[in-house]
Amino acid sequence: MDAVTFDPATRTWLLRTANSSYALRLDDAGLLRHVHWGRPLTPAQAAAVPLREGPASSFDGAVREEYPSEGGARFGVPALQVRYADRGRGLQWRHTGHRIDGGALALSFHDDHHPLELELHYRVHPDSDVVERWASLRHTAEAGTAQDTPVEVLRLDSACWTLPVLDDYRLSHVTGGWSGEFRLHRTPLPAAETTLTSRRGITSHQANPWLMVDGGDAGEEHGEVWGAALAWSGSWRITASRSHTGDVAVTGGAGHEGPAVVLRAGGTWETPVFAGLYTDGGFGAASRAWHRYTAGHVLPRPDELRPVVYNSWEAVQFDVTEEKQRELAARAAALGVELFTVDDGWFGARRSDAAGLGDWTPAPDRFPDGLGPLVAEVRRLGMRFGLWVEPEMVNPDSDLYRAHPDWVLHTAHRDRTELRNQLVLNFARPDVAEWALGWLDALVAEHRIDYLKWDMNRAFTEAGWPGAADPDRLWHDHVHGVHRVMDRLRAAHPGLRIEACAGGGGRVDLGVLARTDQVWTSDNTDAHDRLSIQHGYSQLYPARTMTAWVTDSPNPLTGRRLPLAFRFRVAMAGALGIGGDLLHWSPEELAEAARLVEEYKEIRPVVQQGELHRLRDAVQYTLGDRVVVVAWRLPSVYDGAAPAPLRPAGLDPQRRYRDEATGEVHHGAVLLAHGLPLRLAGDWASAVVRLTAVD
Ligand code: DGJ
Description:
alpha+beta, Immunoglobulin-like, TIM Barrel, ten-stranded antiparallel beta sheet, binds (2R,3S,4R,5S)-2-(hydroxymethyl)piperidine-3,4,5-triol, 20% helix, Beta-galactosidase, Chain A, domain 5, 3 domains, 12 helices
């Protein structure tokens, strides 16, 4: 089966994945129309799909266009908007050709008058139902000709996704804030324009650039779900429009309203990928498909097991000294930790968040002989070495800022707003990006650093670049600059791994995951709160990327006291780390922690590389013949009856499964119908069930 086909008679293109199809057509008027996104179709079937008629009134306009640009009778949210040098607007596209190359399709259009070429790109992969889409806009004028005038690009979305007409629509997405990221919301999609966005220069804690839409009837394991996710780590906007006629379109891309970029003769502006996925196995199947896609086509090292990390932040905050780090490292190593990370506070004059960012040399009073001795000690203890950095930031109280006050985002005659006492370095500037690459490269090389936790702790304000020809570009170019520094650093140091962080989960997206290995999910390490954060995170992103630390009780942020085993079992659902003050853990706690680290290492391949099923108060991971269920019991009201059985998902009813803890063998059919042999007694109880298929 060809992944992409074209039917010249009806001018219909069809993209096919194993379990879905996507079709578009050039209609008689030359408009590119959306035809189909959903269950699999053959080329003949796709060609036979009738185009949906638009409303007849003069008050409505075109519907179900594949990529609605501003201009003509179009009244929806434009995917593309430009302004010409004469202040005129509007686009009028003429189809000029297409290219098919394996799973890739590119359609070209040229404006009837202006020197603009639009390419719409599509790509499918043999092992995924995800359709990748992006767009590029080229200024085709020859330099020095009459058409060599700048075009302002006000909006260039990556794609517009059209849904089939359903009886009803429901929107799923995540919202939140610092220490409360990834809260899943499922709400009816109103007959309105619903915009999810970040205007902060980063992906944001408040919203994450993906959504899912269903007919209101999908469940965790059944029903059709359409979803789209943007691979972008800066500001972004996704708008889901539902009309009174029941048409739903979702247009999205990088950038928020306001900033515009200038395209000059010969220039091309290319968007990030906005990937779409149709599944008919409910939200669970959608998540599993997104996880597989992320592992297969996004992450740099998907098959590597993520190490058990120790991070010193919650234990010592800014009180980072070589002596204390050594003590923590010794305790961490004894627990079975594999990578020891020194967090904020190791450099310059960094004694609090008031000073030092930008001066990336070890603080001499804290590390008299530099980082070398600590790194050597960590290695001697059998662990790899990780270090916290925040390359995009500077404190005004720093040598860097005193030397280069012009390196930060700023606007003439406006105050420079400080957040957490820091300003944002302009990574759109090549000299700033080169400076960052220079010190990072030297630092990583000097100590053979294995792991960087790359943090980013504030949103953009006064995002200007006085004197730049096209200052708004920095909203995009800063992101490209950060991505490029990460890419070049990784290329120069193939052993280096990166953890993305922005005050917890403020920069999690498919763009950053293409050059990092895992992310710091949230600064909220309260295991109870983590359950909902991890639930929302898991909707799109896989467990192997989700760093989860076990920290102290009472939790420093929320004050909640939780048993050590519960804290561990919640963190075990992702890439386990430890972030507590081990110097204050009792010998009993340390012994229990060591046992739990051991337990995690045993289930780690299944958790990190298996398929996720979200169960009630539990998550299940399945890898080949192995099944792991991590279950939690939250405080509940006793109603006189035993709790309902915890039924696993996706087992083979014909096979039998051995419980690795008890050695008992159970029929898959019985487990599926009657639940796991599990009794969780008492509040905050937790358990790990390990099953292996035996015949
Ligand atoms: C925010 C991060 O999320 C924390 O884990 C810690 O690294 C601090 N920054 C350090 O400033």
